[in-house]
Amino acid sequence: MPRRKLAKPQVESLESMTLMSATAGTLPIGSALVHIAAKEARPVAVHAMLHGTYTRHVFLADAGTTFDLSGAGRVSPLGRATVRATLHNLGFIATGHAGGTLTLSTAQGSVTLNLTGPLQDGFSPLPTAYDYTTVGGTGRLAHVTSTGTATLTLVSSHPTTSNAPVPPEGLLIDQGQFTLVLSGRKR
Length: 187
What we know:
By secondary structure, this protein is mainly β.
């Protein structure tokens, strides 16, 4: 039987290569993306007076309650808008921030805001004052950025007493009217 030759791996060097670029200078990719995003962002001072209805639900008693808001109003400089928001107050936690998200929808698109309340103790009522910042948008409003403050007023249709028993989970425990004022500032 003939003997087989064993192949020994070898390393060969390759010639150097220069990658051609379509631009005269080179930019690190990360800074190019940041530069492009900065050009597209449009800071806007959003001011609004919004009215509508809210419902308050308990899903997990220890997790606080959820407030769902739905309404409409005039938003400067965006025009007439509808609003949908979900806010959560604090539950079984030493301290934290109540908050949630709010979406303003217009004929041109939508803008979503993140609302953050002040530092509070657990089981505190929903605060009336929030800071907000934009977290997204769609359509012509996709690149709108804004920060500011929000002031929320709730008027219950069914006032409850403070010593009422904790309702079962998933139960609607309150509903009523809201007014939300947004006071924006340009960055």
